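Encode chain A's predicted structure.
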Amino acid sequence: MPAKLTDSGTAATGSDVVGRHALHGSSSGRRDPILPSESFRDEHAASTRLKSILTRIGGYLSSSTVHSLNACLNYLEVGRWIREKGYRPNHVFSKKQQFWNLIGQEIGGRKVLYLEFGVWQGNTTRAVAKQLSHPEAMLHGFDSFKGLPERWNFDTGEGCFSTGGQLPHIEDPRVHFHEGWFEDTLPAFRLPPHDVLLINCDADLYSSTMFVLNQLRAAIIPGTYLFFDEFSDRNHELRAFAEFLTRTKTKFDLLAATRAFDKVLFRCVEGATPASGR
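Encoded structure for chain A:
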């Protein structure tokens, strides 16, 4: 193929031709789609400058300040997610006890199976037990009692919430504790017959919460109650629940929440689709 001649009559190289296209566009008057547009280059340059500025500012911030900024992003994300999903709580509470009062009003007289993941000192277990009046209600608490297995955030590291292996003392024969990591205790647990299932996910971590939800997938049916104690953390409980909804197609109503959506109570209205087996 003969070389293309320039205006001066000399042979043009490939780079000459590309250069002319970049400056003047193609012979048909249209911009070469391979080359970035001027607006794209401007946006990329602005983005690069912003990243550089933020990085330099970060060099002067303390870890606690970055943690606080991250918390702000958590609340922005949970607000965005709640709106995107169309959730509107039936009740807005300011105290955790109000959630358990609602549970007592709705299902307190039924044969409830209560599963709590993250017991610590057992204060929540005691509060729930008082709301469940049925003599055959069952309360099972799962905890290593050695603290978190990994770091949660800047303030809360591995081993936090440890009781030194000491289990709470609760004088209620309906209460039973399962000591150990969830992956060691939950798979061997067989759910006893019950009228209503109430799950309290207070595990804080994404990994622990995701494990619990996956293990209990088949048991989460219409009428199941699901409580999250630290929902407004986009990297942990919120992330685990959002992924669970996407994967299983389970549907819930939002019964109650605090104004910041850090504590939320859902009720299942449509169970999970069958697992693919893969």
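Residues 1-28 have pLDDT under 50 and may be disordered.
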